Amino acid sequence: MTRHLPLLPLRDIVVFPQRIVPLFVGREKSVAALEAAMAANKELFLVAQLDPGEDDPGRDDLYDLGVVATAMQLLKLPDGTVRVLVEGAKRARLVNLEPRDGFVAAEIEEIEEEEESAGGPEAQALMRSVIEQFENYAKLNKRLPPETGIQLAEIDNPSLLADAVASNLSIKVADKQALLGELNPARRLEMVFAFMEGELGVLQVEKKIRSRVKRQMEKTQREYYLNEQLKAIQRELGNEGEEGGDELQELAQKIRKTKLSKEARTRADAELKKLRAMAPMSAEATVARNYLDVLLSLPWGKKSKLKKDIAEAQAVLDEDHFALEKVKERIVEYLAVQARTNKLKGPILCLVGPPGVGKTSLGRSIARATGREFVRQSLGGVRDEAEIRGHRRTYIGSLPGKIISNLKKAGASNPLFLLDEIDKLGQDFRGDPSSALLEVLDPEQNSRFQDHYLELDYDLSDVMFVTTANSLDMPQPLLDRMEIIRLEGYTEDEKVEIAKRHLIPKQMEAHGLKEDELVFTDQALKAIIRHYTREAGVRTLERELAKVARKSLRQILEGKAETIELTAENLNEFLGVRKYRYGIGEEEDQIGAVTGLAWTEVGGELLTIEAVTVPGKGQIKTTGKLGEVMQESIQAAMSFVKARAPAYGVKPSIFARKDIHVHLPEGAVPKDGPSAGVGMVTAMISTLTGIPVRRDVAMTGEVTLRGRVLPIGGLKEKLLAALRGGITTVLIPSENEKDVAELPETVKQGIEIVPVSHVDEVLARALAEPVSPIEWSDADEHAVEPVIPAAPSDGETAIRH
Ligand SMILES: Nc1ncnc2c1ncn2[C@@H]1O[C@H](COP(=O)(O)OP(=O)(O)OP(=O)(O)O)[C@@H](O)[C@H]1O
Ligand SMILES: [Mg+2]
Fold this sequence. Notes:
801 residues, alpha/beta, 5-stranded mixed barrel, 24 strands, elongated, disordered C terminus, binds adenosine-5'-triphosphate
């Protein structure tokens, strides 16, 4: 049975039975259909269009299945369209269309649904799952009002539930139409369940994307906002234009112009690109900018023109430094090889010697002689590897290491790099700086030097490294890389010459004195050297000369004098009382006081050895901060003395009543080594016999238990010290005689050098009177400690000092 109802074609919506839906109606025919319905029993036929764009759909443009609905409320809007609330009633099939007066009537046939009992357990289970699923779906789908789920839960008819859910799903019209066409409620429920399942998946992904997008948006917006604020602040502060464009362009230009290595260029470009993307005042940008500054200020490819004239180099060295012939000779040889081979692959020069002998200033001179820039890095107290090699850029405020920053200072990639005081390198938990230096100093490796800050290879192979040290006390691998050149200290005459040629003119100039305003006599200079300095080098001398220059200048400016001549007599007006006595020979000979000779890092020195007897039991007591070796050498000396006592006129019974105390003055200075052995023996015998020791005789040498004198080291320094101290005679081990040949003439002329091979010879020379041996009977033997038997002579060995 069919009937006719006004037709309302729907563009993009499917209305289900029992659903109330608001519709906007605009098409003339539709409005007329609505009016016709309102005039009759308010019933309408609603059916979806196949093509939503069709304005005047014919039969073929409409789906077959629609729904009979009641118009509940009608609202005419001012623009002629109508808002209507319709409630679906029943499914119906469209049979035909018939045009009426102004609208179209649809001939329809109502459809009965298949029966489904709501009570069955299967239907119940299905309904429950659909409701549950719908709740999940409603949570994700923001377009559904939250109470929809609750309303649905109240529906207990499977068919109605399926329709209710179907009308709330956001699915295609065709899909909804399929749901409308399914007349079996259970199957329809299954279908909506399946649709929801699919939708849920999509919704979940959608949600994820949405939140991600939102977060990104927030971040970019925030950054944009902050940057804008920053710009506004800068504008307020008046730095507008300083930052940004100009500077980056300048950097780009600099990168283009600098002769960077390929690796460095890639790095610089990348860094600039990053910098462009950063906010100009951010911490990161500062880091990137600093890095580029350092990178671009390195002397890439910039070289000084080197001088290759060897004669000229020798002349420069001679001009800057008096004496040091051997040293200069060695340096010039080294330069000659360099000039010929154009390479620096030789070992690194290491100038070793006491303070103030001109090591540092020689380094400067070599730079001048070869036309290299000069950079000096003191390594004293450097304990952190990072100081040599730099910090990684991840640390705030990190900097390149000393090598790289000094190269920057030098402004050329082939400077002379003086690593001063290399023996003073420290070492602690922060790493070992000497191991970083190993790489720097190895000509095979240093073409690819890696600084932690730069993170690039930098070529150091054109740098000429020279090192200085006071002693050779440094790690073996470092020593291995260097060629040691020794500077031993100056004789008095050399010092006078150095003062006249270099130190005095330098100080006069520094104090603005004219040439004839201050004159030193040779006697005055000698007196300064003897009485105001005691050193291997000339640093104190230079300081004293500066003092004289200062005081003279004052006198001249005050008008007290026009020119000043410094003599041995008026010296104390300028320098105060004498600080040192020259020549121990001036002193009286004393019992138990011997002049020994010591060798230290700071040059040779005179060393007094004192011995006295005190009540006791033949023990030995030592004081004066003595090292282990020295302690043992005193023990050995004591045993020798006890063993040979009668031969030197000492009654062995004295050891039952007396101890001997040996002391080395300047008790705070640590002393060690075996070379004071002969001195110890002499001091002991002197105090035991009461015969004074000649103060103008100095001695050095290790002594064995049987009185043989063994050779020692540092002879030249020791003799220089003796000369400084005004000693006239020095007793040296005869095995050291070969070293005498290398000594400067002044030393040989100034001192009588006496080689000795046995203590007896020492005593004969050093004691003011000869010893007189005594007879000692066996009956007295009980009072003596056991005498040590003589060992076979070839069993005697000693480690040289
Ligand atoms: N042979 C010399 N001719 C001219 N001047 C010299 C000579 N030896 C040293 N001098 C001068 O003595 C001063 C000290 O020298 P320098 O600073 O080079 O000593 P150093 O050996 O490096 O000592 P340190 O081990 O304490 O560093 C400098 O002013 C230097 O010019
Ligand atoms: Mg120095």
